[in-house]
Amino acid sequence: MKRFMVCLRLYYKNLEEFSLNFIDGANKAMVSGDNIGLRNQLVSKINNFHLLCVYDGETRLNSRNHLKSLAHDILRGEKEDMPIFGGSTEAETFFVWEDTYQENSKLFFKLRRTARDDLIFRISVRLAAYFLKEYSTFISTSISRHPQFQNKDLLDTAITKLENLLRNSTFLAEDVTWDNFCRWFKYNLTEQVLDDMERTMGRNELQGLKDADLNNQFYHHITKQLQIDSDFISNFTSNTEQYLQQWFQQVISSIDADRVSVSEMGTFLEVNRTDFPDQSKYPLKMNVPLALTDQDNLTVLSNAAYQSVREVISNKCFAESVYSPWPTAYISKKTIEGTIQIVPFGHEQKNDQVENPKSRELTNEISELAVDVIDALCSFFLANSEHRHDMVEIKLRDLLMIRGLKAKLSGNGRRGGFEKGQVDQILKSLSIVQSLWVNFSKAVVYEKRKPVQVNLEGRTFRFFNQAGKECDVREMALEKKLKFTVGEVFAKYLVRSGRQTALLPIKTLQYNPRQEEWEKKLIRYLSWRWRTQAKKGDYLKPHKVSSLLRAIGKEINTRTPSRTRDRFEQALDKLQDDNLIKAWEYEEWDESIAAKNSWSRLWRNTKVIINPPQAVKEQYQLIAGNSPTSGKFFGQQKLTPIDPYDQLGSQLKTFRKKLGLTLVQAATELELSTSYLSTIERGVKIPSQKVMRQIEAWIHG
User: Fold this and answer.
1) Can you give the pTM of this predicted structure?
2) Is residue 278 domain-resident?
3) Which of 116, 537, 541, 635 could form a disulfide with 630 if both were Cys (CB 3.0 to 4.6 A apart)?
């Protein structure tokens, strides 16, 4: 899976370089060639304009179904290829000058966003068809005979996954990409229109037009061609098809199919939901020395020191300090104060020296993976130790497997091992963890159930070679085994009467550190908060949006705050879809505020109610006791969906998925916020009569 994603990342880079080179080529065309003088002059005189594509619901649905039908033909072997655009006109196209566009910018922006989403969908359909067909060659079985390909939802699943990937994790999420595409498109279209005008009017007459007259003639010519000239439309559609086919080919050429394993391809496309002969038949808990509280949760520490270390690493809080040669993060909280530093192993007593270059190198290599390693080590230790000074032995592969990674196949069908790059990443993260030096001048621990203030200094984890001697973890690369124990900083919190642990969904470690960073950070923070709330049972105590953003090290995008809000809500929806939270909603948020200026300031101060899954409440039941706030209500509403509107929410979700739309896309079409639409689908919110009619009209067309 990782190798497949590496290939995709290579494709993103190459694709972006191609796009920019393609634009540069178009620009060079403006200053070279036989007609350089005339063409350059004429192009420069045309005022800025936009072409807007408007889709009606029925035509759009038919178009999407037609594309899927072509994709199915490819899977059945009845076609070898498919266009990104169909042969018939699928949208009404309108010409708009820049000043008119600016006067109605909000409306036109929505139309452009819809057209952009449609284009991403089209590319995703073709990619899905290609990769699924490619997968059949991996397994040497025809698509028509393979049982997994009889699943009618398989293509939709692959399309949705690719669509989300392109939309959220590639250069297609960047406005500059689409600006470049529009620039190329406008230049290409302008050339085509001017060529037609030259043939109609003659070169001399065209060249003699004044600027205003030229633009006026240009407007009348292009609007006429868009209305009645099918050849004209077909021509610029064909040019766009060629441009996008270059994108598509760049994807294919960037992925070396021979280097992608069966399981990697299958996992990415979600084909291998059943066991193939080459896949492990044993669940995770049978392969790693780990005791899960249930099939979905790990046990980790929950004290303030542990959480502070995780946050500092996750949010990369280290900076240069005038008081120390080592990269330092300062901690000042109610129950804990002090510093966390990056001090390479072996330099504990050399704080007066000039900073070792290794510390800066380690600081630059910090990633979310290091936090995963901390949680994994902690869970392994708690599961396999009886005393806080015990030494635990695990294999390096255990740290890879707990993250959901699978070893690649060897030639004889057995597992051959993990990739060197995967192992190197784990070793780097282990080196970062080993380099953590904690010095808390104030820390509260519990002895005989009473809080005691102490000083804590030392490593978080200590590592030993097979001879039992503490050593640099990088020296253990060839041994493939780890012996470790918790340092004195964490050991102080493992005295039996003061032991504090929390549940952490194993899915946290399996989320992608890049594409699913928000989800990973949020659930890690929420899991810790639920443990701190367990005593009072106030799981439904609202969280300020600003507090959640600060906890995960994110800030509101001042230029386009809607991006931050969309990503925040997308992460919460993903956590709910994965059953890591039960439900979520805003507390007293008026959606009309989002239409006003400076709405982000009010949004960041609003509150979110996040309900934990039932397993968390049950696990902490003994701590919570009989608290009346243990979760009967969600906000001001019961947690169970409201029956009269549950059917509407179900119909809405079914119809949205049938169209292949994400919540963001559907919300754009309905002119509702993503969060509001999500709560309607889940039966948490009761839509107004106006919104209800709006949704019903959208569904029934």
Assistant:
1) 0.54
2) no
3) 537
